[in-house]
Amino acid sequence: MNNNKFQFKVLAHDSKTKARTGRLFTPHGTIDTPVFMPVGTNATVKTMTPEELHNLGAEIILSNAYHLYLRPGAQTIAELGGLHKFMNWFRPILTDSGGYQVFSLSDFCKLSPEGILFQSHLNGGKKHFLAPEDVIKIQQDLGVDILMCLDECLPYPSDYERTAASIGLSLDWAGRCRDVHKQDGSALFGIIQGATYKDLREKCARQLVKMEFNGYAVGGLCVGEDREIMYDIVSHTVDFIPEDKPRYTMGLGTPRDLFKCVSLGIDMFDCVIPTRHARNGSLFTKSGRVIIKNARYAKDAAPIDSKCRCYTCTHYSRAYLRHLFVNGEILASRLNTIHNLHFYLDLMRQIRHSIAQNEFINLWKKFESDYNFRG
Question: How far apart are CA 224 and CA 156, in angstroms?
């Protein structure tokens, strides 16, 4: 662990879009942006060891405060030396506050200005209460590098009045989160909400910027709205985030989402797509997705992608991967995940390089011409 406190520096801009490269400095190392964060909800990226993630070039992963609070408990992890030691991952970690999980997983959830009363999806439905201050303490007990404020996550669609009231609550919670965040070198990000209403997005962003967070996330997207509407909201919201702060879209996305949102000035991404798709036998290549269970691959001696240099592609055939998958072998999920994460992390490396060389548009055009976005 180094002693760097959280900082962000913009290094290069693309001349034809809002795309940029940057570097995040955290207590557990530096991160080059734009960056994709593999999702390790329960202190593990499913099927992967931390050593494998390191070898793939992952610079930061995401874990979830809600799940770790319920099991094994943030205090337990703290007593065992913190989340980095607990999972043997000594690069940076970002934790989602768990607000989305509270609303999506709980059969019972009641909000008030004081916080959230909810019923756990574990342990027989025990009820818990979390105030914004509790959520920050949980994340600081975990010892992570980037913390997220507690916010309310609305379903899609939500009417204007409901959304306006919601961002009022989330803004109040954000201020309380900021007030108790310890200045220990870690960063605290505010989350911009407002559904698909541009004026509410602007209001929320402006108020959060006044609170002076270390970075800002665009939340509450990719929840059912049309993709073009989502991109329009991201584009609009970015205009109200300071140039010298990192920008994070939560829960996006597909390779197309990455290119589009990078072009709009987004620096950080997370999504379960590469790992979840891998476990379901859907593998990413530069020309589209390979559905490995298809009978056409039963005697196919080629790798998933002949141009890919990941461990899976350099050692195994489509035929073997199909055999593993249709027989339900655990190795199928492992090898598929290695490939999909390599695809995503390598794509982000190419994007960063293209921005630095002012060739981002050319890379994007080539990718679109080669890739089948239907899959």
Answer: 6
Instruction: Say whether both 160 and 248 belong to one domain.
Output: yes
Of 14, 151, 257, 270, which is the active-site residue?
Answer: 270
Domain that holds residue 301: 278-361
Instruction: Give residue-wise pLDDT tens across range 137-177.
Output: 999 999 999 999 999 989 899 999 999 999 999 999 999 99
Helix boundaries (H) for 264-329 = 273-279, 311-315, 318-326
Residues 260 and 329 in one domain: no
244 with 285, same domain: the answer is: no
CB 47 within 8 A of CB 279: yes
Of 96, 134, 145, 267, the catalytic one is 96
260 and 118 inside one domain? yes
- pTM reported for the whole predicted model: 0.97
179 is a catalytic site residue? no
Q: Which residues pair with 265 in a beta bridge?
A: none
- Is 96 noted as a catalytic residue in this protein? yes
Give the 3-state secondary structure of residue 332.
helix
Cα–Cα dist 55/44, whole Å: 15
Domain stop point among 217, 232, 264? 264
The answer to whether position 369 is within a domain reads no
Instruction: Say how many Å lie between the first and final Cα of the chain, rounded.
Output: 41
**Cα 368 from Cα 151, distance rounded (Å):** 35
Residue 98 has pLDDT above 90, yes or no: no
CATH number for position 174:
3.20.20.105
Distances (CA, A) of 35 to 7, 24, 38: 15, 10, 10
